[in-house]
From TrEMBL:
Residues covered by the 3-dehydroquinate synthase C-terminal domain: 190-339
Broadest EC class assigned to this enzyme: lyase
Residues binding NAD(+): G114, V115, I116, G117, D118, T138, T139, K151, K160, T178, L179, T180, T181
Residue span(s) of domain 3-dehydroquinate synthase N-terminal: 77-187
Principal subcellular localization: cytoplasm
UniProt xrefs under SUPFAM superfamilies: Dehydroquinate synthase-like
Pfam families documented for this protein: DHQ_synthase, DHQS_C
Organism: Caenispirillum bisanense
InterPro entries for this protein: Dehydroquinate_synthase, DHQ_synth_AroB, DHQ_synth_fam, DHQS/DOIS_N, DHQS_C
Job description of the protein: Catalyzes the conversion of 3-deoxy-D-arabino-heptulosonate 7-phosphate (DAHP) to dehydroquinate (DHQ).
Regions annotated as coiled coil: none
Protein name: 3-dehydroquinate synthase
Length: 377
């Protein structure tokens, strides 16, 4: 049963002046997508981008709703997975948009997880010097994080998300029913970004997750909905305060300096999902904070216990049976977008719910944390 029958959709608003938009959250929203998009369309035309896994599961309901609303549409299906966030796929996507004769008024629609949202948003931001797009996220990760805030991009051989734009969607449509087809490993990866909001500035939310996280992952729709709404509201507040990451938005990067280094080393494949990398990375950031005398060791253990209890990784993976190299991981961090004057800005914490930015990390302490996590793998 759709949880729309239990509760109507709720709407949050991201206030960014003329780039403001709604985030609608509820069950069954795919079937209403055409009608819900209509007010933000410049012409009754859409170009839908999705991936090969999502297409057979959810594309039909979306295109049926576009048909019902009289919105003409083309579709483009990309391969599923992180490797799709590449120059090669960006080129093929832009080519397909141009071949379909998309116009400046055509609405680009991203139906899928964060990979589809990131590359489609990027393509929309440069197509014809910028066209509108709508996010229709179908993973927990994209519903709590990537569909909101306007960060778009692809990975390069130099590192994660190093080429991209800030381009806000015109609407975010979160159909919570799509999560029923999501594999457990992907749900868990998205859950890591939910935990992140608790760690940044909401100890009460973290405590609620300790109580409810397992049920949420097991399919409790009310808990999922509350987690999605709380996460989107938290992200919207930060993005409204600092849209282009001049300051406070960098807190949303908690765990990502470590996590992106792990992802780079794993080659952006199935070995380590983004959310899994963030889980390990957040724990490394907490461990670093504790070793610098900034956070209580008890909070590190509390975080480790919660991540492990729900089934998220707490150590880096091995690559073909071998441990990663700590020095190589540290060297990846030099490509972080938060580097200024050659120095990485880290997101550290004074404890659960008390994250802050720090530019004074002792390289030896950092190296020690990375080496110990690698040794535990
Ligand atoms: N722009 C941002 O602010 C932001 C924030 C967080 C993460 N990200 C990016 O998002 C990406 C990760 O996103 P993700 O975890 O959604 O990965 P993803 O897009 O690769 O989706 C994960 C997998 O689930 C499949 N899938 C998607 N929806 C499904 C469904 N409903 N049922 C069954 N299978 C489904 C996909 O085909 C894919 O295989 C990373 O590239 C990360 O860098 C961006
Ligand atoms: O929206 C943000 O800001 C974030 O940092 C959210 C992150 O979860 C996300 O992974 C983002 O893509 C990372 O951004 P990056 O600038 O470090 O690539
Ligand atoms: Zn992330």
């Amino acid at each position: 049963m759709s949880d729309a029958a239990l509760d109507p959709a709720e709407t949050l608003r991201v206030e960014l002046g003329d780039r403001s938009y709604d985030i609608a959250v509820g069950g069954g929203l795919l079937a209403e997508a055409g009608a819900r998009m209509a007010p933000v369309l410049r012409q009754k035309r859409a170009f839908v981008v999705t991936d090969a896994t999502v297409a057979p599961l959810h594309l039909g309901r979306l295109t049926a709703s576009l048909d019902a609303a009289g919105i003409r549409h083309d579709t483009h299906i990309l391969p599923a997975g992180e490797a799709t966030k590449s120059f090669a796929h960006l080129e093929s996507l832009l080519d397909a948009m141009l071949a379909a004769k998309c116009e400046r008024g055509t609405m680009i629609v991203a139906l899928g997880g964060g990979v589809i949202g990131d590359i489609t948003g990027f393509a929309a931001s440069v197509l014809l010097r910028g066209v509108d797009f709508v996010q229709v996220p179908t993973t927990l990760l994209s519903q709590v994080d990537s569909s909101v805030g306007g960060k778009t991009g692809i990975n390069t051989r130099h590192g994660k998300n190093l080429v991209g734009t800030f381009h806000q969607p015109r609407l975010v449509l979160i159909d919570t029913d799509t999560l029923t087809t999501l594999p457990r490993r992907e749900l868990l990866a998205g859950y890591a970004e939910v935990v992140k909001y608790g760690l940044i500035d909401s100890p009460g939310f973290f405590a609620w997750l300790e109580e409810t996280g397992a049920a949420l992952i097991d399919g409790d729709t009310a808990a999922r909905r509350r987690a999605i709404l709380t996460s989107c509201a938290a992200k919207a507040r930060v993005v409204q305060a600092d849209e282009r990451e001049g300051g406070v938005r960098a807190l949303l990067n908690l765990g990502h300096t470590f996590g992106h280094a792990l992802e780079a080393e794993c080659g952006y494949g199935e070995t380590l999902l983004h959310g899994e990398a963030v889980a390990v990375g957040m724990l490394m950031a907490f461990e670093l904070s504790a070793r610098m005398g900034l956070a209580p060791a008890a909070d590190v253990e509390r975080l480790r216990a919660h991540l492990a209890a729900v089934g998220l990784p707490v150590v880096p993976p091995r690559l073909e049976g071998r441990r990663m190299d700590a020095d190589i991981l540290v060297s990846h961090m030099a490509s972080d977008k938060k580097v200024a004057d050659g120095k990485v800005t880290f997101v550290l914490a004074h404890g659960i719910g008390r994250a802050f930015l720090c530019r004074d990390v002792d390289p030896a302490v950092l190296r020690g944390v990375v080496a110990d996590f690698v040794a535990a793998s």
